[in-house]
Amino acid sequence: MLVLGIESSCDETGVALVEWEGAAVPRLASHALHSQIAMHQAYGGVVPELASRDHIRRVLPLTQTVFDEAGKRLADVDVVAYTRGPGLAGALLVGAGVACALGAALGKPVLGVHHLEGHLLSPFLSEDPPEFPFVALLVSGGHTQLMRVDGVGRYEILGETIDDAAGEAFDKSAKLMGLPYPGGPWLAKLAEQGDPAAFKLPRPLLHSGDLDFSFAGLKTAVLTQAKKLGDQLDVRKADLAASTQAAIVEVLLKKSLSALAETGLKRLVVAGGVGANRMLRQQLDAACAQRGVRVHYPELHLCTDNGAMIAMAAAMRLQAGLQEATEAYAFDVKPR
Ligand code: KG4
Ligand code: ZN
C-alpha cells in the first residue's frame, strides 16, 4: 500500500509517500518540505492569506519531487491523505483541495488526518519506533497536551493547557525580546549564553496536583521583567531568555514525570515543534533515565510540521482498520 500525505495546516507545505506491506510498520519512501518562515518573518507572525497562496505555489512541485525521489508514479498511489485540521482554514483547504482533486483524477480514495495525531505518531518514522502503551507529551505552537496512548486511535487526554501552548509561550516571550519569528528556536539559542537562574519567573500550575498547564501568566511576567529592565534589556536578554526557557522546561518536565508516575507507564513520547528544544530533551533524558523510563522523540527534522507524519498517521489508521478512506471528495477541513 502506498499513501501520499499532504500537510498545509500552517506555514510549512509538506508532502510525503509512506508505504507498507501487511502488518509491517509503514516506512517513509520520500518526503519534501517547504518552509514559509522567511516569508512571514517580515510580519512577525503567520499571515494566513499569504500562507494559503504559498501552499498553492508549492504543493504540486513538492508532490512531483516525492514521486521522483521514491521512483514512483501517481498511478501507484492507493490513498491520498491530507491534514483535515486543526489549522488555518484557507491553508487547510489547499491541501484538502489538492488531495481531493488527485483522488478524483486517479479514482483513489482520500483520507483526512488530525494534525496532532500526525505529531503523536511521528516517532514511528524513526529507526527505533516506540511500543504501545506510552505517555505522550505533545508540545507544539498551538497545543500542549499529555496523553495516554494505548494504540493507534486509543488516546486519553490526561492534561492540557488552559490558555497558551508551550510553543506560544516561547514565541510570545521571544517577540517581547525583539527576536525574529518563530521565536522558539531563537530564544533557545540565545538562552545558551544566559543564566537560567538570573530572573525569578513563575512556574504556573506546577503544584496544581493535576496534569494541566498554563503559560499565559509566564508571558505577562516576561513582559513585566522586560519593561523593568528598560535600556538594560539588550545586555540582559540572554539571561531573560535562559530564565524563560528554564521556567517552561521545568513545568513540562515535572508534569510529564507526574503523568508517568500516575499511569505507571515506562515509555514517554515527545512530539511537536517544542520537542526539538535541546534543554527539554536533556532534562527529560536525565530524569527518565533515573526512573527507568525510555524516551522517544521524532527525528529532529520531523519535530515541526511535515507531510511524513500525515502520511504515517493515515497509513497506521488504515493498517489498524480504524478508518475507511472515502471517495466522496468533499473539501472537509476542521480549523478548530
Ligand atoms: O509543531 P509545530 O511545527 O507547529 C504546530 O503545530 O504548532 O511547532 C511549532 C512551534 C513554534 O512555537 C516554535 O517556536 C516551536 O515549535 N519550536 C521550538 C523549537 N523549535 C521549534 N521551541 C523551543 N525550542 C526549539 N528548539
Ligand atoms: Zn504542528
Strand segment tally: 10
Reading the helices and strands in chain order gives EEEHHEHEHEEEHHHHEHEH
Mean pLDDT: 96
Chemical compounds bound to the protein: 5'-O-[(R)-(carboxyoxy)(hydroxy)phosphoryl]adenosine, zinc ion
Q: Helix segment count?
A: 10
Q: Briefly note the structural class of the backbone.
A: alpha/beta
Largest sheet: 5 strands, mixed
Tell me the radius of gyration. 20 Å
- The percentage of residues in β strands lies in 15-25%
Bin the helical content: 40-55%
Assign an overall shape: globular
Q: Which strand order do you get reading across the main beta sheet?
A: 3-2-1-4-5
* Terminal-residue CA separation: 30 Å
- Enumerate the spans where pLDDT stays under 50 for 5 or more consecutive residues: none
Could you write a compact summary of the structure shown?
The chain has about 325 residues and is of the alpha/beta class. It has helices at about 35-40, 50-70, 90-105, 115-120, 165-175, 185-190, 215-230, 235-265, 280-290, 305-320, and strands at about 1-5, 10-20, 25-35, 80-85, 110-115, 135-140, 145-150, 155-160, 265-270, 295.
